[in-house]
Amino acid sequence: MISLEQVQLLEAKVTKAIEFVQQKSLENAALISEKENLQKKLEANQRRIDELEVHVMRFKEEQGRIEDGIIAALDRLSQFEEAFESSLKEKTAVKKTPVKTRERAADAAPKTVFFEIPKEDVQEKEELLPDEDLSLERELDIF
């Protein structure tokens, strides 16, 4: 037969088992909640990564355009320097030639004009701007 002590021992073990199952259920619920929170953070971080990747791509494209602009500006500057140097060489060549040869060369050589601004544009801008020397404090905008 079963003794009272055996029943009490069984009851104690069942109580311990129930407490253990309840504790593990609570831990499981906490872990599920933590998993959901971590999943939400992961998704938010992934969205942020995607946004940053878009920014990086735009930045790289803009850097490429900036580099292209700088290269184009440097090319134009080189062309200007070459034209200026050739102009100086022509002037020094004209100075070295005798007067009669210079007169013939001046008549025969076409005149080089680097920049020509129509007088109407100059007059319009002078009317819009105050009377001051504009050449002193201006920067050259090459872009």
* Count of alpha and pi helical runs: 3
Number of strands: 0
**Helix and strand run:** HHH
User: Based on CA inertia axes, which overall geometry fits?
Assistant: rod-shaped
Quote the beta fraction: under 5%
N→C terminal distance: 103 Å
Q: What are the low-pLDDT stretches, counting only 5+ consecutive residues below 50?
A: 132-137
CA radius of gyration is 43 Å
Q: Structural class, from helix and strand content? A: mainly alpha
The largest sheet, given as strand count, sense and whether it forms a barrel, is: none
Mean residue pLDDT = 80
What is the share of helical residues?
over 70%
Question: Any key phrases for this structure?
Answer:
143 residues; 3 helices; mainly alpha; 0% strand; single chain
Structural summary, described in words:
The protein has three helices and no strands. Residues 132-137 have low confidence and may be disordered. It has helices at 4-96, 99-108, 119-128.
State the gist of this model.
This protein is mainly α and 143 residues long. It has three helices and no strands.
